[in-house]
UniProtKB/TrEMBL annotation:
The lineage of its organism: Bacteria, Bacillati, Bacillota, Negativicutes, Veillonellales. It is found in: Cytoplasm. Its cofactor is NAD(+). Belongs to the adenosylhomocysteinase family. This is Adenosylhomocysteinase. Binds 1 NAD(+) per subunit. The gene is ahcY. PROSITE patterns: ADOHCYASE_1, ADOHCYASE_2. Its main location: cytoplasm. It comes from the Bacteria. GO terms for molecular function: adenosylhomocysteinase activity. It holds the Pfam family AdoHcyase. Residues 184-345 form the S-adenosyl-L-homocysteine hydrolase NAD binding domain.
């Protein structure tokens, strides 16, 4: 089937981006060498629906080296990079995606990918899984299972499992140590501020930053904001996470109070309606709002549009809303993931860990999927440890090892 992309003439620039990140993903390189030698995925069709930028593209090429027929589509209308999509097509992969697609086009791309009847899926946010349980059950005829990249998608998987509606095994890669401890904390922490700063060209230091949600992503966003010199406020619904934020040195407030002091707001909750009408009504002039959760429902843009007397695009990826009293509020990237819709996403060295886990998850499903119950799984700890050790070795670090006496001491029955 023919790819659907914006412009194949962008391929040269896209390949340069893919080549660049490949230099900084040694763990994935090591797995790619093994997959190629063993032809691990020969005869398998793998559909990848992850934010389509250079690191995702490189993961797809690693799977292709292992013999797979790899079909790639995006997982968000604003995160696809057209040159990277073209670069993948130029490298022999099938791609259905382009930047700023409509909702209709977005789901058409997902359906085109599922037309290939995959053996394995790699999902980000749960839209592929949702289609396979609703309108595209026909595409499951060869499906062994798959994996999920992000917190929101994992929540959707557990909802299916709890309702006893999940029909194939899925690995929650997001819940593996080498994913959430590094990707969610250090990756999101850096890439969110990269997206905000390159989009606004404003300082962070001295500003009041409000971070909604203190999960692993929220911790990363707050930590990096503090490092950039901001005064950081956290909003939470979980008392344990809230006290952790306090002990980490941050001020915890309800959003209605934080809304009065914030200069920059970033939602990282995975929930909806985190910032709504009552908050807009008390915000300072020129407050900036953005979201780093998977779906564009955390910052309620509809409420803001209803309140505003006018709005306009004031700069690429910035919409300005003028209130009746003359205040202006700014929304970045239409409330979609600011780090991907207005940036390049997580650093390559971070995604090296996450996508190595995805590659191992695909291999695990290949070898075990037929015998796995339709449940949500986490990869065995041994695979986490293997990835961490490969990464350490690539960075020039080594570890101690336990002596037999130490092993006996730790394992003996007292």
């Amino acid at each position: 089937m023919q790819s659907l992309i914006k412009d194949i003439n962008l391929a040269a620039e896209g390949r340069k981006k893919i080549d660049w990140v490949s230099n900084f993903m040694p763990t994935l390189n090591t797995l790619g060498d093994r997959f190629e030698a063993e032809q691990t995925f020969k005869g398998q069709t793998i559909v990848v629906s992850v934010h389509l930028e250079a690191k995702t593209a490189y993961l797809a090429t690693v799977l292709k080296r292992g013999g797979a027929d790899v079909i790639v589509t995006g997982s968000n209308p604003l995160s696809t990079q057209d040159d990277v999509a073209a670069g993948l097509v130029d490298m022999g992969l099938t791609v259905y995606a382009w930047y700023d697609c409509t909702e209709e086009e977005y789901f058409n791309f997902l359906n085109k990918a599922l037309d290939h009847k995959p053996h394995i899926i790699i999902d980000d946010g749960g839209d592929l899984v949702n289609l396979l349980h609703t309108t595209r059950q026909d595409a499951k005829e060869r499906l062994l299972g798959g994996s999920e990249e992000t917190t929101t998608g994992v929540h959707r998987l557990y909802a299916l499992e709890n309702a006893k509606q999940l029909t194939f095994p899925m690995i929650a890669v997001n819940d593996s140590y080498c994913k959430y401890l590094f990707d969610n904390r250090y990756g999101t922490g850096q890439s969110v501020w990269d997206g905000i700063m390159r989009t606004t060209n404003l300082t962070v230091t001295g500003k009041n930053v409000v971070v909604a949600g203190y999960g692993w992503c929220g911790k990363g966003v707050a930590m990096r904001a503090k490092g950039l010199g901001a005064h950081v406020y956290v909003t939470e619904v979980d008392p344990i996470k809230a006290i952790e934020a306090v002990f980490d040195g941050f001020k915890v407030l309800p959003m209605i109070e934080a809304a009065k002091v914030g200069d920059i707001f970033c939602t990282v909750t995975g929930c909806k309606d985190v910032i709504v009408k009552e908050h807009y009504e008390v915000m300072k002039d020129k407050a900036i709002l953005c979201n780093a959760g998977h779906f564009d429902c955390e910052v309620n843009v509809a409420d803001l549009t209803e309140l505003a007397v006018s709005h306009e695009r004031v700069r690429q990826n910035i919409e300005g809303y003028t209130m009746a009293d003359g205040r202006k509020l700014y929304v970045l990237a239409e409330g979609r993931l600011v780090n991907l819709a207005a940036g390049d996403g997580h650093p390559a060295e971070i995604m090296d860990l996450s996508f190595a886990m995805q590659a191992l998850a695909a291999e695990h499903i290949l070898h075990n999927g037929k015998d796995m119950e339709p449940k949500v799984y986490v990869l065995p700890h041994e695979l986490d440890a293997e990835i961490a050790k490969l990464k350490l070795n690539s960075m020039g670090y080594d570890l101690d090892s336990l002596t037999q006496d130490q092993i006996d001491y730790l394992t003996k029955v007292n």
